[in-house]
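Entry for the shared binder. Reason: the reviewer on the internal report wants the predicted structure included alongside the sequence.
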Amino acid sequence: MPIGILQDIAHDYKVGNRLLGLDMGSKTIGLAVTDSRLSVATPLQTIQRRKFTKDILILKTVMEDYEIGGLIIGYPLNMDGSAGPRCESIRHFAEELAKYPDIVGENPWMAFWDERLSTVSVEDFLIESVDMSRTKRKQVVDKLAAQHILQGAMDYLKSSGFADKP
């Protein structure tokens, strides 16, 4: 299975596999999960990052518990659409994760999805629509950003017909 930009590897997605969305930050990883029909992305949890080997053990538990068949990883493109150093960091994380087949499987499907302004959108929503305090926002923003990223990727898969093929 491939690792790459969703639009480039969508044809390899196996219909019926649940997806796990990741919003990668330097201190946290927001997680969201989808149902097998790719209808709804649900915020799951936020991992406080420590060491790579400890972080991926948490991912392993989540992937097993929710029977995850692929990952959608937020890809922090620059505003002009170019890939910067943060994108390189995300690619490196995915490549390292792929070296652990006991966690992601022998041939992992890991897709990158443009996450520009996902956290900003979630923050704006929580401030304007929910009127949530800064302290409470900090507790939920990462997993909600992961949900936002995952929902966008699912919508793409659905609208492009990749989620409906046998």
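Summary line for the report: Residues 3-159 form a domain with the Nucleotidyltransferase; domain 5 fold (CATH 3.30.420.140).
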